[in-house]
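Quick one, probably user error.
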């Protein structure tokens, strides 16, 4: 019998997958563009939130600067597609390798501290990068970079036109799904167990013969890669990038998304991103003050369900299992 949290995660996985297939089918039949692109964007930012959850929910490190890697991936992807070759796999490959190096370098600065100081250092690194990009004319300065070409992506099933909303939605779904699968695999390894141990009590880790420095660095680099690859998809969807992708608001929204979906679940942040994007779209059609309404919704969720939607489902399955056990 699966424990309540595993059952809750499985349910969210199935719910998201069924919803994605249904949205793709309905959107393709109706020729809808807006909702397919909105769903694609929610998946992309869900990948960013997933990187935050790896650090916060699994290792216990609050990063307020994941937008640095998200924006880095977006800008590097746009540069590769515009200046080198309009190749999906080349852009993803270059971003992956480069983000490993960037995450490795940043880890030597960020991981020298803990707690709130770690959060402030990650925030500071992102702010410095955002300001540098904002003032670099070769990167478009405050206007950003435009004119990213529409891709023709080769797959075993034929060439996919990324300009088709439904086709690129599936490409994004597969990419974010691959990132999610990689992170889930890591959690089943000894490294994943060490991450959980660090979150529980880092000081006691030495007593069982393990050091925390290397595992934390691996998690930091992996989170940077997940955020950067997610960001690499953004210019492919929108055709442009801007310095705003590195702003604190992007990192802050990712943290909110994680809390909304469920900290430490990996799949919860993706669900949270889908819901948050939907709330913004729906409420935004009713009032220009949609941020106030979303803020109130967030407060209600945090007060009534501190562990997010995944936590609510886990609690439900736990009660249901206890009730059956009592019978």
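Nope, works fine. Designed sequence:
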């Amino acid at each position: 019998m699966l424990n309540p949290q595993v059952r809750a995660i499985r349910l969210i996985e199935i719910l998201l997958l069924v919803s994605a297939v249904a949205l793709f089918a309905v959107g393709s039949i109706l020729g809808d563009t807006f909702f397919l692109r909105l769903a694609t964007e929610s998946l992309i930012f869900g990948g960013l939130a997933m990187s935050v959850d790896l650090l916060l929910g699994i290792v216990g490190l609050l990063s307020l600067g994941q937008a640095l890697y998200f924006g880095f991936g977006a800008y590097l992807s746009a540069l590769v597609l515009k200046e080198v070759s309009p190749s999906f796999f080349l852009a993803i490959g270059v971003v992956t390798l480069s983000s490993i190096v960037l995450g490795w370098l940043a880890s030597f600065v960020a991981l020298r501290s803990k707690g709130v100081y770690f959060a402030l250092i990650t925030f500071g690194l992102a702010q410095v990068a955002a300001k540098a990009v904002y003032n670099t004319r070769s990167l478009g300065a405050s206007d950003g970079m435009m004119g990213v070409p529409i891709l023709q992506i080769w797959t075993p099933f034929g060439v996919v036109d990324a300009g088709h909303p439904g086709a690129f939605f599936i490409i994004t779904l597969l990419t974010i799904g691959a990132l999610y699968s990689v992170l889930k695999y890591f959690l089943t390894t000894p490294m994943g167990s060490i991450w959980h141990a660090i979150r529980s009590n880092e000081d006691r880790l030495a007593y069982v013969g393990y050091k925390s420095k290397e595992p934390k660095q691996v998690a930091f680099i992996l989170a940077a890669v997940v955020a950067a690859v997610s960001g690499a998809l953004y210019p492919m969807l929108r055709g442009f990038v801007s310095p705003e992708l590195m702003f604190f608001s992007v990192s802050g929204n990712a943290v909110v998304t994680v809390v909304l979906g469920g900290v430490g679940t990996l799949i919860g942040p993706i669900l949270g991103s889908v819901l948050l994007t939907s709330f913004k779209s729906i409420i935004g059609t009713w009032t220009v003050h949609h941020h106030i309404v979303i803020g109130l919704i967030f407060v209600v969720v945090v007060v009534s369900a501190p562990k997010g939607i995944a936590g609510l489902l886990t609690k439900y399955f736990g009660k249901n299992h206890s009730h059956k056990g009592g019978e």
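The chain has one domain: 4-326.
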